[in-house]
Automatic annotation (TrEMBL), chain A:
Descriptive protein name: Raffinose/stachyose/melibiose transport system permease protein
Lineage, uppermost ranks: Bacteria, Bacillati, Actinomycetota, Actinomycetes, Kineosporiales
GO biological process, one term: transmembrane transport
Compartmental location: Cell membrane
SUPFAM superfamilies in UniProt: MetI-like
PANTHER family cross-referenced by the UniProt entry: ABC TRANSPORTER PERMEASE PROTEIN MG189-RELATED-RELATED, LACTOSE TRANSPORT SYSTEM PERMEASE PROTEIN LACG
Species name: Kineococcus aurantiacus
Gene Ontology CC entries for this record: plasma membrane
Ranges annotated as spanning the membrane: 12-34, 77-98, 105-123, 143-164, 185-210, 243-264
From TrEMBL, chain B:
Transmembrane regions listed in the UniProt entry: 38-65, 99-121, 128-149, 191-210, 231-252, 287-312
Protein name: Raffinose/stachyose/melibiose transport system permease protein
Family affiliation: Belongs to the binding-protein-dependent transport system permease family.
Extent of the signal sequence: none
One GO cellular component, as annotated: plasma membrane
Region (Disordered): 1-27
Coiled coil start-end: none
Record bears the keyword S-adenosyl-L-methionine: no
Domain ABC transmembrane type-1, chain residue ranges per copy: 95-308
Pfam families: BPD_transp_1
Amino acid sequence: MFRYTRRTAVREVLVVLAALVVFSPLLILLNVSLKTTQDSVSTSAFSPASPLTVDGFRQALGGEGQNSLVTGALNSAVITGCSVVVLIALGSITAFTLTRITTGWSRAAFASFLVAIVLPAQLGQVPLYSAMRHLDLLGTRTGMVLAYSGMLMPLAVFLYSGFTRSLPQEYEEAAQMEGASRFTIFTRVVFPLLAPATGTVAILAGLIVWNDFFTSLVFLNGSDAVTLPVVVYSFVGTLVSRWNVVFAAVLLSMVPVLVLYLLAQKRFIQGFAGGVKG
Amino acid sequence: MSPAAAVRPDATGSVPPPAPGGGGRVPRRRRAASRVAAWWWSLPALALIAAVHYATTIAGSAYAFTDFNGFRSPEFVGLANFREILTGAAPLRALLNTVVIAVAFLVLTNVLGMAFAVALNRQLKSRYVLRTVLFAPVVLSPLAVSYVWKFLFQQDGPINQVLGAVGLESLQRTWLGDPLTVVPAITTVMVWQHIGLTMVIYLAGLAGVPPENEEAAAMDGAGPWSRFRHVVLPALRPTILVASTMILVQGLRVFDQVQALTGGGPFGASDTLATSVYKETFVNGRFGYGSALALVMTAIVLLCALVQMLLLRERKEK
């Protein structure tokens, strides 16, 4: 049944063409970034870059304006890394606690995480802004790590809880009989078993923090801790129709994520599919 | 919390097995104390979301009824902000744009994602490569993606070039500068970036549809379309619901793409609730009015999420 016939081949060609059309913006991005400034304006986006030049990349990295792409990338990396660590540490232990203890308050606590997942950030932004200003956290990496950890904690708890709920309890009970302390049981027995969920949380939360624009625009604009999206945003504002430089900057900002994606595409795709199913 | 409450059977109805050791029955009290998880472990995370989500949202809702501007102490103005939203042309425009974008985003992303999922479910030799390629835009930042499309939408950009090449000059537009086309253009960018996401969700859903059902229908003489319509589609219903809510909520919150592509222009023609909130609060310094706009947006988002939850529960009970 459902053999590969000539009609399937025709369908395959059509699907490949459709996929090519969908993918073409990224090919154009690469092409234009390799042109000279003059060519990026005067030649068609479809004509291949000739002469090939990395001038755009050199200018993008040369850092016009006060914050360079390199600074932005470093800030983004530090903020993303620290947020993910906090989310994994607190998210896993919280989900474990809330799924193992099933009383009224823990169910209410779990529901509070679920509601927070869909709550838009905009409404709380002003109070969060003034709170951070009072605490001297505005425009700092520490402040951003705290803000992102809080914002994405509901997602982390939700992803972990789907996993902890289906985790067999025999291992914990066996360890308990051996006299291991609760904390040892969690760190040595439970947490290693949560590895697949940890991967999903790291990928999803890491991507969201790395790509976030709104929160970092509001909290970091003009500070030293600006993240990559804010740098690219203010960068592009100053580059009127120097598309090769714009595209070089955009491409450079994409590289870390694209490389990770190509190395671990299966994990990424499973992470999204699994994350959505819960 | 009483110790008895702590040993109640959990939600799945399973009663914890009696603790081993010692041979005799373990007293209930000790059993409760020997839980593997300690309740206070969840406190740091709860404190964090109480502070970052709930305290701020409640405080923000309170601002919505004031004329706070960041300097003077806020003064209660009742429903004045909401009256301004309901009688002003700009906020209504933003509300309308948000709904139009969210609904179009919802329909197109789901249809295209499902189409690619069905096409790439099995048979095709290139399916694994194509899945990887089509999913790639999902991992990119919406901001970066928007700049690529800003270039494509230019007056002398690739889209107008293609239209010219195939003899459709009459369709050429300044896509982002024309109040008529700016909202569809923004929606296109969002749809483009999310096709891969819905595709993956539907592929996961399709994995739960056994090929035998389709084969049986084919034996009975059902063509590809009627197999899809009567066998595959009904089985995908829960997936459609999950994917739709997620995409709808994302659409209602759209900010990055609008900010990067047009900044809300031309003349507010593409403003959404989220960009209006940003502009009013952080550019114009009208914290009270901005909060009122944000409250409207939050109410809409929560309502959509609630409807989805009820629909899912209804399905489970059937």
